[in-house]
Design brief:
The chain has helices spanning 5-25, 30-58, 63-84, 91-122, 125-144, 172-182, 192-203. The chain is mostly helical.
Length: 207
C-alpha cells in the first residue's frame, strides 16, 4: 500500500539515493541537489522522530534501536550541513560527500533490514496507514519551513524562524542539541514543544 508509513519511508530513501548518485556523477548538479538532499533528510528524520520512532519504541519494543537511529540522524544532518560550507568542486567536498553518503546508507540499511520489519510485524495495516498520514504531514510541515542557505554565510540550521517555532526561531534539531548539552533525559522521543519546555527548565537563568 502506497499510503503506509513503511512504503513512504522507503520511497524517501530511494529519492535520497537518486540525489546521491546525481551528485557523484554530475558535479554541476551539486549546488541544487545538495541543499535539496540536506533539507529532505532533515524533514524525513524529524517526521520519523516525531511519530515513527516513538511507535517503534513503545509498540514494537525497539526502544534502544530507536534511540540509536535518532543519534545517527543527527550525525548525518551535521555532516550534510558541513558539506554546504565547502566548495563543491574541491577534493575535500568529494571526500566528505563519500563519508556522508556512507553514513546515510548505513542508517538506511539498518532501518530497512531491522527497524521497519519490526514495525511491520508489530503494527496492523490500519495503524501503519495512520502513521503514514502523520509521517507525511510532519514531513511536509518541515519542508515548508526549511530554507537551506548556501553562500551567504548563514548556516543551514538558521531556518524555520517564521514557521511557528514559538518565536524562538529554533528548530527541533537545535532544541534537541541544546537538550543534549543540558543533559535532558528522554529527549529522543520529545516533540518540539516538549523539548523547548525542558530546555527552558534545565537552562534556568543561565546565559
Amino acid at each position: 500500500m502506497a499510503d503506509d508509513v513503511i512504503t513512504m519511508i522507503k520511497t524517501d530513501h530511494r529519492e535520497l539515493e537518486r540525489l546521491f548518485d546525481m551528485m557523484k556523477k554530475e558535479k554541476s548538479s551539486r549546488p541544487l541537489a545538495l541543499p535539496l538532499a540536506v533539507a529532505m533528510l532533515e524533514a524525513h528524520s524529524r517526521a520519523e522522530e516525531e511519530y515513527v520512532y516513538p511507535a517503534l519504541a513503545k509498540e514494537a519494543g525497539e526502544k534502544e534501536e530507536a534511540q540509536h537511529a535518532t543519534e545517527e540522524h543527527h550525525e548525518a544532518e551535521h555532516m550534510g550541513k558541513h558539506l554546504l560550507e565547502l566548495d563543491w568542486e574541491s577534493d575535500e567536498f568529494d571526500q566528505e560527500l563519500e563519508k556522508w553518503i556512507s553514513a546515510v546508507r548505513h542508517h538506511v540499511q539498518e532501518e530497512e533490514q531491522e527497524l521497519l520489519p519490526a514495525l511491520g510485524e508489530a503494527l496492523d495495516a490500519e495503524r501503519l496507514r495512520q502513521l503514514g498520514l502523520e509521517f507525511a504531514g510532519q514531513r511536509s510541515e518541515e519542508l515548508a519551513g526549511t530554507a537551506v542557505h548556501t553562500g551567504d554565510g548563514r548556516p543551514a540550521e538558521q531556518r524555520g524562524s517564521s514557521s511557528g517555532n514559538g518565536g524562538s526561531g529554533m528548530t527541533r534539531a537545535e532544541l534537541y542539541e541544546k537538550a543534549r548539552e543540558l543533559g535532558v533525559e528522554g529527549r529522543s522521543h520529545m516533540n518540539k514543544d516538549e523539548l523547548a519546555e525542558q530546555v527552558r527548565e534545565a537552562g534556568g537563568g543561565k546565559a
